[in-house]
Write a structure and sequence with these properties.
This protein is an alpha/beta fold. It has three domains: 6-161, P-loop containing nucleotide triphosphate hydrolases (Rossmann fold); 165-205, Orthogonal Bundle (Helicase, Ruva Protein, domain 3); 207-322. It is 53% helix and 8% strand. It has 15 helices and five strands. It has a five-stranded parallel sheet with strand order 2-3-4-1-5, with helices on both faces. Strand 2, helix 4 and strand 3 form a beta-alpha-beta unit. The protein is elongated. It starts with 8 loop residues before the first helix and ends in a 6-residue tail after the last helix.
C-alpha cells in the first residue's frame, strides 16, 4: 500500500470519491509533499477489483499482483537514469501498452513521474494517447514543475493541485518521522526544505545540517579574509551544487528584503542572520541585484545539468560575494 499522508486526506476523498474518473490527471505541486504516493494510492484504487470504501482492498488478485510489481495492466514511466530525460522511445513503448486490451478485464493505469522530464519529442508522442486513450485507461502524471510541461499536455489532463501542508501539520508529522531530532532541528530542516516535509526527511538523511554548518562557517571566514574563495570551493566538494546555489540565492533575497524593510524578523535562519544584516548594511542594492541575477542564471545551468567546472563556478560566486560589502 502506498503511504497515506495526513495533509492529503481531503484531497484523497475528492479524488477517490469520484463516481467517474477522467482519462488523465495531472497531480502537481512542490517536490517532497507525497504526490507520488498519492498517485500510487490512486493507481491501486483504480486497479482494485473489490475496493474497500475509498481505498484498494489489498487482498484481491489485482492488489496482490500490484504489490508484487507484476500487474499486467499497470505501467510506470520514469527516466531510465535519475535526473535524465524520459525519451521518445520510452513513450512509444508506453503507447504500445495503452492500445492493448486490459488483461484482467478492468482498467489499465499508467503513472508518469516526473512528467516534466519528458523531452519535447517524448511529450509530443504522448499527446495522442492523452487525447483519446483506448479502452478504460487512466493516465496519472506527476509534476513538480508544471511550467516545464507543454501547454497541450496540461490542457488534456484534469489538473489537481497538491498544496504544501501547513507548518503545524508538517512539524507534527516530522515529530514522528524524525523522533531523534529536537523541535528546533525539525523547524530548521523544514525551513531548509522550503516547507516540504518529505524533503526535510531526505535532507536530514543526507546530513544537510552538518553541510550547512560547514558552509556558514566558511562564508564567515571568507568575509573576515581568514579563508580564500579557492580554499572554500575545494573544501565544499561533497556538498551538492544545487544546495549551495539555493542557499546563496536565499541569502541574497534576504539581504535585499532587509535593505527594503529593515525588518529584523525577516533575516532567515539564525545561523546567518548577523551576516545577512551586515551585508545588507554594507552593500549597495545594485550590487546585490547583480549578484542575485548571476546566481539565478548559474542555478538554472545547474538544474539543466550543464557541464560545469564546479570549483571555478564556486570561486566565481565567492569572489563576487567578498565584493559585496564596500562603497554604497
Amino acid at each position: 500500500m502506498a503511504e497515506a499522508y495526513p495533509w492529503q486526506d481531503s484531497l484523497w476523498q475528492q479524488l477517490a470519491g469520484r463516481t467517474q474518473h477522467a482519462h488523465a490527471y495531472l497531480l502537481h505541486g512542490p517536490a517532497g509533499i507525497g504526490k507520488r504516493a498519492l498517485a500510487e494510492r490512486l493507481m491501486a484504487r483504480l486497479l482494485c477489483q473489490r475496493p474497500d470504501g475509498l481505498d484498494a482492498c489489498g487482498q484481491c488478485k489485482s492488489c496482490l499482483l500490484l504489490r508484487a510489481g507484476s500487474h499486467p495492466d499497470n505501467y510506470i514511466l520514469e527516466p531510465e537514469e535519475a535526473d535524465k530525460a524520459i525519451k521518445v522511445d520510452q513513450v512509444r513503448e508506453l503507447v504500445g501498452f495503452v492500445v492493448q486490451t486490459a488483461q484482467l478485464g478492468g482498467r489499465k493505469v499508467v503513472l508518469i513521474e516526473p512528467a516534466e522530464s519528458m523531452n519535447i519529442n517524448a511529450a509530443n508522442a504522448l499527446l495522442k494517447s492523452l487525447e483519446e486513450p483506448s479502452g478504460d485507461t487512466v493516465l496519472l502524471l506527476v509534476s513538480h514543475q508544471t511550467s516545464r510541461l507543454l501547454p497541450t499536455i496540461k490542457s488534456r489532463c484534469v489538473q489537481q493541485a497538491c498544496p504544501l501542508p501547513s507548518e503545524a501539520m508538517s512539524l507534527a508529522w516530522l515529530a514522528t518521522a524524525l523522533p531523534d531530532c529536537s523541535e528546533d532541528e525539525r523547524v530548521e530542516l523544514l525551513t531548509l526544505a522550503a516547507g516540504s516535509p518529505l524533503a526535510a526527511v531526505t535532507l536530514q538523511a543526507q546530513g544537510v545540517r552538518e553541510q550547512r554548518a560547514l558552509v556558514v562557517d566558511g562564508v564567515k571566514k571568507l568575509l573576515k579574509q581568514q579563508q580564500s574563495p579557492t580554499q572554500l570551493a575545494e573544501g565544499w566538494n561533497a556538498i551538492p551544487l544545487l544546495l549551495l546555489f539555493d542557499w546563496f540565492c536565499d541569502w541574497s533575497s534576504l539581504i535585499l528584503r532587509y535593505q527594503l524593510t529593515q525588518d529584523e524578523a525577516g533575516l532567515g535562519l539564525a545561523d546567518m542572520r548577523k551576516v545577512v544584516q551586515y551585508l545588507a548594511q554594507k552593500s549597495s542594492k545594485d550590487k546585490v541585484l547583480t549578484i542575485q541575477d548571476w546566481i539565478l542564471a548559474q542555478r538554472q545551468k545547474v538544474l539543466s545539468k550543464a557541464n560545469l567546472n564546479r570549483v571555478l563556478l564556486l570561486e566565481a560566486l565567492l569572489v563576487q560575494w567578498t565584493g559585496l560589502p564596500g562603497q554604497r
